[in-house]
Amino acid sequence: MTLLTVTPREVRQDWIARREIALLDLREEDPFARAHPLFASQLPLSRLELEILDRVPRKDAKIVLYDNGEGLVSPAGKRLAALGYTQIRALAGGLQGWKDAGYELFQDVNSYSKAFGELVEARRHTPSLPAQEVQARIDAKADQVILDARRFEEYAVMSIPSGISTPGAELVLRAREIAPDPATTIIVNCAGRTRSLIGAQSLLNAGVPNPVFALRNGTIGWTLAQQQLEHGQDRRFPAVSDQGLEDARAKARDVAYRAGVRRIDAEGLADLAQDRKRTLYRFDVRTPEEYAAGHLPGFRSAPGGQLVQETDVFAPVRGGRIVLADDLGPRADMSASWLAQLGWDVYVLDGGFDGELETGAWRPALPSIPTVVEEISDHPVRVLDGGTEAWAATGRRLDTGLVRAASDPEDVYKRPYEGTDNAAEAMQAYLDWEFGLVDQLARDGSHGFFVI
């Protein structure tokens, strides 16, 4: 399929002008992590049909596709057209064209959120403590709590001794319950830097009276200091009291107001949804367990800390609108405050949880697979009616255990800040890359971030 092309300059101008555009990198994660434009979103050809309807919900949004000469753009364009997308373009010259235009290429994944985290530290001088000092404080039984701002699954793999799982959006809501004495020091950690910095600065922005620090360089810094991590822990944040909730609501709402976040009710949400010329993302920023127990129709699960960390994954259409829902309030306000500083047009939904709720975990909105394969395939295709469930219902055997992935193992990006067997050289190289992101943002000049 031959697509119309747009130049790298045109893409960059759309970013600067905040016009809607989704720049999609069709490669697998490892090559994407080696080099990509700032606001590119990785959506490999191998998962295109599975994810596109949720990640780019408006079918006449401007989509620009690129690869690095692998021949992925034409088949991707064909598949998107079969799904009803109408404004599909190719990036002239692909990744090499972007480089030849003299524009910055960024590394790793979630790079624009990570670059923003570094900018926050540079502008606000977010206080931090090195691993050796935190270990000394643990040994001395100092009056402190360590709050792990990652997803619980990451925390369970490896954690700082005595750390409590408190994912980023929960920090302002739960801090008073965990550390009621204002003299208690709060230390926020993640695997690397971003969620530690954003988490600690969230508490500072909200005016939490305790001394607050980020753990410098997270579990990477801890490991490089040759200190022991814990594994398999399950300490979680406590429930919030009425007084704690009232206090957190006031603090979080003030932060959101200072960041320029707007508030809407159900009628306002319906009005935004009527605007067919703008992409509208609806995210529920509570915990996955709360979401599964009951959520607003049309809202996807996006726990607030991860939404801020992985904005490029959740919302590839740069320039779209985002509405956040949270039955308690502070998690949406704090998450929205960061999204606004990241340059998003973001709203917090007031109320809305009184009506009929849907239950169950979020699942991707799948296209009609039989229809799609018929329209995009050049070869005879047969679809198993009813899928795996229908196969099992007839009494036929299902294989168990792990099998080899269809993609080349080299396509899988091994994050140097996750897992327990990473080389020290890789971890240090990752930190060195993060330290240089503020300067790279300045050279790029297209981000539009601000820091309150």
Report on this model:
The chain has 21 helices and 15 strands. It has helices at 8-17, 29-34, 48-55, 73-82, 94-100, 111-124, 131-139, 152-157, 171-178, 194-205, 218-224, 242-258, 266-273, 288-293, 304-309, 311-314, 330-341, 369-376, 387-393, 424-435, 437-444, and strands at residues 5-6, 22-25, 41-42, 63-66, 88-91, 128-129, 144-148, 164-165, 185-189, 212-215, 262-264, 280-284, 300-301, 321-325, 345-349. Strand 7, helix 8 and strand 8 (164-165) form a beta-alpha-beta unit. Helices cover 41% and strands 12% of the residues. Helix 6 packs across helix 10 (194-205). The longest helix is centred in the middle third of the chain and has 17 residues, at 242-258. A five-stranded parallel beta sheet has the order 1-5-4-2-3. It has a five-stranded parallel beta sheet with strand order 6-10-9-7-8. A five-stranded parallel beta sheet has the order 11-15-14-12-13. It is α/β, with parallel strands linked by helices.
